[in-house]
Amino acid sequence: MSIENQTFTEKYDLLGCIQCGRCTGGCPVTVRAELNVRHFVDQAYDEGKLDELARLAEIWDCTACHTCAVRCPKGLKPLEVLIGLRSMIVESGKVEPTVRDALQSVLLEGNPWEKARAARTDWMEGLDVKVAEEGQEVENLIFTCCTIAYDPRVQVVAKNMVKLLNQAGIDYAFLPEDESCCGSEVFTIGEEGLFEMLVEDNTEYLNNFNAGRIVTLSPHCYTTYKTHFPDIRIPLYHYTQLLDELVQEGSLSWKGELQKKIVYHDPCYLGKQGGIYDEPRRLLKSIPGVELLEFDRRRERSLCCEGGGGKMWIESQSTEERLADTRIKDARELGADIVAAACPFCVLTLEDAMKGLGYEEEMRVAEITELLGELIEA
Fold it and tell me: In terms of DSSP bridges, do strands 210-216 and 172-174 run parallel, antiparallel, or are they unpaired?
């Protein structure tokens, strides 16, 4: 049966659900919102209820963290039922203006931040950075990410990667301004047509490069390409894998020490979805003087920061404590000086929470590349 002719039940394999409730039991958002994933899966059996379900506000509380998929004993992805319901709303055009504008920006400018494509590489100004050309051989092709390219707070990720890669002396090149959104948030918002277009266009574009591997700076890009772009011929890496490799082989070393207690926050897209847990920890442990702490909720149990699943453009109606606030409070109880992450969305949400709680004089939120960039040898 063709995908176009599948029913909602067939498309999302609803008959495979045994209604055990582990999805809802593990969902981090349930502590602050009315979201009940098991209920949606159960009710979606009835095609006549789909319109009613799609109009419920809680479908937009899902952060696409994949905890429900990790916990499902049948190997299902309950969150995609919610994404399917979102697709119905997106197709009807009845979405929040912020969502509409983000999707329109992706279509017109290749990013969801309503920024000009021509400004995508402005962050490179003043840096000794190598830029890729189609057909030219390069070992490490760096995919920057829309958020890192445009948001001043996390542009430091790309800037420090340039310094780190130059220090290591390896062959690399960043994609030029032709780079387009990977579609991570487009997919989770539910804009199927636009996402299909991005898959087709980006696959063709990236395959034109003669690269040994593609290295993404954001776990959202890494997981999206690994999961939804089956025809990309080039191996995919996250930057923590590359930097860990360089440290292990001695191509990168650190200047001085960092006498700090650091707790690492596992980004959902890097950990639960990408299966990358050890490389970021090894990088932090490689810094002289660092005492690496661990959250109780870590690795596949990590608490979501609520930055994914399109939540950057969709405000929850809940007034309960945000998960990022809980995460920062947990870090403070551990006595951490620094909360480290390897995801731009996590950095933005966690730092916002830290400032909102008034803890900025006590601790710091830092992307791993920030810490490493401050410690490379001159």
Answer: unpaired
- Are 343 and 366 within 8 A, CB to CB? no
User: How far is it, in rounded angstroms, from Cα 117 to Cα 51?
Assistant: 36
For residue 329, what is the domain's CATH number?
3.40.50.10700
Those residues whose C-beta lies under 8 Å from the C-beta of residue 66, and which sit 6 or more positions away, are: 77, 79, 268, 272, 273
Q: What is the DSSP string of 283-305?
A: HHHTSTT-EEE--SS-GGGPPP-
- At 44 the three-state DSSP class reads coil
* The total number of structural domains that make up the chain: 3
The model carries a pTM of 0.93
| CATH code for the domain in which residue 195 is found | 3.40.50.1860
Res 191: pLDDT:
95
**Could you tell me where the DSSP H helices lie in the chain?**
8-11, 22-26, 37-43, 50-54, 67-71, 79-92, 97-109, 146-150, 155-168, 184-189, 192-207, 219-228, 239-248, 278-285, 323-334, 344-357, 368-373
Q: Which residue, 92, 109, 143, sits at the end of a domain?
A: 92
Quote the CA–CA distance of 95 and 116 in Å, as a whole number. Answer: 23
Same-domain pairing of 260 and 239: no
The boundaries of the domain holding residue 77 are 3-92
Alpha-carbon distance of 325 to 82, in angstroms, equals 25
**What digits encode the pLDDT tens for the residues 162-199?**
999 999 999 999 999 999 999 999 999 999 999 999 99
Please check whether residue 223 lies inside any domain of the structure: yes
Q: Which two tokens stand for residue 207?
A: 């395959």
Angle at 9 between CA 6 and CA 13, to 5 degrees: 100
